[in-house]
Amino acid sequence: MKPKAKVPLNCLFQGCYNPELEAEIRKCKDQCYRYNQLNPNDLEAQRKILSGLLGRMGENVIFTPPFWCDYGYNISVGDFFYSNHNLIITDGAEVTFGNNVFIAPNCCFTTAEHAIDPQQRRDGLEIAKPITVGNNVWIGAGATVLAGVTIGDNSVIGAGSVVTKSIPSGVVAVGVPCKVMRKITEEDKNRYPVFGQD
């Protein structure tokens, strides 16, 4: 899907009461609604809606319903992407997911921030900042990733985390606000036995 209205980055813009943006959001919500009503085994119909909704979609992409987003065309998804139930993406700016990304249930990625000043907020001013998730990332259940955040390759975000700042590659990060707990090491490969392997 090609955007009809561009949202400016890194500056306040009229987002809440913009008729053109509101029309695009309504169109997107209609597609999300149709997607969420599909038979969960109708993978062909799911892929057809997603390919028309998302800006870019790799191979082997699964969004387990329900899934909601604002525009859709600002979302780019790599290969072997899996999201569990109740993923919400407010994609006023670009949201980019690399390859081999796993997202647990009830996660939210939000590029939008409303104005801090109450008058600007009443006037409907907001700002949108992109979110980038690298390759081989696992996002735990109930995590929230805020505007402007980058999560590096091979990292794990713990369940319930609120990610307010960027997270480097190759780490386990958790908490409110989310902080790096430790690096991922070779020892993590031996943490659990693999079924069927001696």
From TrEMBL:
Q: Which GO terms describe its molecular function?
A: galactoside O-acetyltransferase activity
Q: Which InterPro entries match?
A: Hexapep, Hexapep_transf_CS, LacA-like, Mac_dom, Trimer_LpxA-like_sf
* E.C. numbers: 2.3.1.-
Domain Maltose/galactoside acetyltransferase residues, every copy: 13-59
**Pfam families from the UniProt entry:** Hexapep, Mac
Is-annotated flag, keyword Repeat?
yes
Q: Which SMART domains match?
A: Mac
Arranged from A to Z, the UniProt key words for this protein are: Acyltransferase, Repeat, Transferase
UniProt similarity note: Belongs to the transferase hexapeptide repeat family.
Query: What is the protein's given name?
Result: Acetyltransferase
Species whose genome carries this gene: Candidatus Egerieisoma faecipullorum
Lineage of this protein's species? Answer: Bacteria, Bacillati, Bacillota, Clostridia, Eubacteriales
